[in-house]
Amino acid sequence: MHSASSSKAQPIRMSKFPIKTAMDEKYVDQECAYIKTALIQIQQKCNSVQSFEDIYRRAYSMTINKHGHRVYNGLREVLEAHMKKVRQPVLKAPSGNVLPIVLETWKDHTVAMSMIRDVLMYLDKVYVARENVEPVYDLGLSCLRVHVICYKDVNERIRRGLLDMIQQERDGGLIDWLLLKQICSMLYDIGVYEQEFEKLFLCETAEHYKKRGIELISNNTSTVYVDQVEKFITDEAIRAQRSFKDETKKKVLETIENELIKAHMQTIVDMEGSGVTFLLEDHFLHCNKSPGEGRIVDLRKIYHLLTRVNGGHSILCKAVTEWIRQKGALIADPALQSDEIKSSPILYVNSLIELKKYADDMLTKAFRNDSSFKNKLYAEFEQFINKNPNSAESLAVFIDEKLKSGARVNTDVEMEQSISGVMELFRFLSNKDIFEHFYKRFLARRLLNERAVSDDAEKRMITRLRTECGYQYTQKLELMFKDRELWPTLQGAYREYLDGLARHRPTLDVQVRVLTCGVWPNSITMQCCLPDDVERAYSTFNDFYTKRHNGRKLVRNTYLGSADIKATFYNPVNTAFSEAESSTAEFPSYSSVAHVEVQKILTVTTHQMALLMLFNQENVYTYATLLEATKMPEAELIRVLQSLSMGKAAQRVLVRRAANKSKAAEFGKIASTDAFFVNDLFTSKLTRIKISMVSDSRKNQSNESRNVDREQVRQQTDEDRKHAVECAIVRVMKSRKRLAHNNLLSEVISQVSTRFCPTPLLIKQRIEALIERDYIIRDKNDERVYNYVS
């Protein structure tokens, strides 16, 4: 609390400076001499007898009486004389003491100039502004710059001292970081930092690291070199952060990058035994054997280093892309493929999946998901996968193996991985319609033979295809599943129909699978003469179906059917007799001698069943007789006979007697006169035996057969493509009404690109076909413009 005062507060009174309205020359000289003496004492750090207030008053008086120039010039004279005086200790100092003396001079000078600026404040405010000359403080810095710092001998000693300190620190020595920073700050403040220090510093830095770079790259691997360069960059960044301005830090790092990275980046990439190609190959060979990052760390360092400079990114990307191209060519190029990969679609697709997985791993872990790397690598995958004409078929075969029951995929995770791997490669396919044809064939076999590993897996695959290519791509595949879902319902209705029959009820249990025409692949449609009982059963089912679905017609296809046959073999009791009989008799029979009846259930195809049932009527048939009796195509009959008489020893239920003994051992060479009869010596530990057909799978069928199959798919695909292109043309023209030729081409390609890539020639041919059928017409004024005919 302040106590109240009875007396009023007195106002503060300021005395006015005496202003002399008229000054003679002698007085002016005296005043100038007085001020100069005071300034000299300030510079010399002497205890002045004059007060700062007195100096200020005199300078003020001189300024308002138009003598400010005398004071300003006197100040310059004092400063110049003082700078010449303080320059001498710098010139005489030993090399190691130059920088501390310069720094001390700088500190003293800035303190003195601050005082001088204060006492000459009015001069600075009025005279300097009016005459447009340097402010008092800046005048002091200019004098220091001209007469001390930029003086030729002093200048050289300062620069040499700074550069020697930096080199000493680069060599591992200890230096006075604060001194280095303060000297650099001094040079910056007086405006000579770039000219007197930075340029020379950057030149010496470039020369230093140029020598170091050549030495390191010649004596070390690329990985060691990269590690050392990273260390240099880190050290220089720390040094610049401690002592230099931010602009210098950027320039220093750019200099180092040019000398250590840009000058040697091609060598880093191509270095034998440690370059990028070697690292990629080494990690690819060992990534499965030794899980972990392995060479990824080295690749990541190289990527980080090279992407710091212009051109480094493209050089590294080119090297990685070239390696992927070479690896892909060894897998996919028919001219470079190994025999093992060429003969095994499974191995071919597995190799591509591994390479794709490896490339994605590199992109994620080493190259930070670089979009340009990703685009170029994926372009390479697309190129070499589509270069192989059998890629679409191989993908379909691979996924067929995974989705078939009995495959070695045990868990949902493994199944999902297989589907994902195939879909990643599927995205690169340009001819997705060819894959669709093969996939549809294999799916039909899995569904008809009940070999699908699970409905969930099948539907997941179809869902992935629909997501990738659209609903139209998988429409028929989904309709195939709908047909299969109706089979149990239809079979149940058929059984109820049979229960209602009073007579003429079939003695055989027949299951007929009805396939919607146009949905299921119809590449193989065969007919054969069925046994009477089977024929009657089929006729009964046909009557049932036509009554249930009025207007529908069934067309029988026995190619993919199957049957269970109860077979009786008469194994002779006397083994010695049986061996003698089989070797001497042309067509041995043991039913009339002591024998044992052996009952077996044979699981066979419909065509095998039709042929075997004939031996209930006759003991021996020739090939020509069987061909006439079964009405099978000759190639199919040969396959059936091969599977029954020339297959595995445990499955030979028929015996072949060749008319020409010299050709009896020739597998598959069946003459029209060759005879066949039941093998009563047939034995097996199993009660139910599956008789496999001679395989026409992708693994075992001959190249000729595979080429014929592929040609059929190609022909069907070509026809489908014609229709797809025509539909696209009509859709585009219907919406646009009038369109130029080039624009129509681009629109059509865009619409059908999810299935295949049409050639301009194909589109042009379909345009001509539509013109002939009056869907579109050419414009009368411009032949390259089309109009839609509504």
From TrEMBL:
Q: Which UniProt keywords apply?
A: Isopeptide bond, Ubl conjugation, Ubl conjugation pathway
Kindly name one Pfam family recorded for this protein.
Cullin_AB
Domain of life, source organism: Eukaryota
Q: Where is the signal peptide?
A: none
Q: Name one GO molecular function term.
A: ubiquitin protein ligase binding
Q: Where is this region: Disordered?
A: 696-719
Question: Is-annotated flag, keyword Transcription?
Answer: no
In its keyword annotation, does this UniProt entry include Cytoplasm? no
A single BP term in Gene Ontology: ubiquitin-dependent protein catabolic process
Q: Name one GO cellular component term.
A: cullin-RING ubiquitin ligase complex
Q: Where is the Cullin family profile domain?
A: 390-645
UniProt similarity note:
Belongs to the cullin family.
Report what the protein is called.
Cullin family profile domain-containing protein
What is the organism of origin for this protein? Mesorhabditis belari
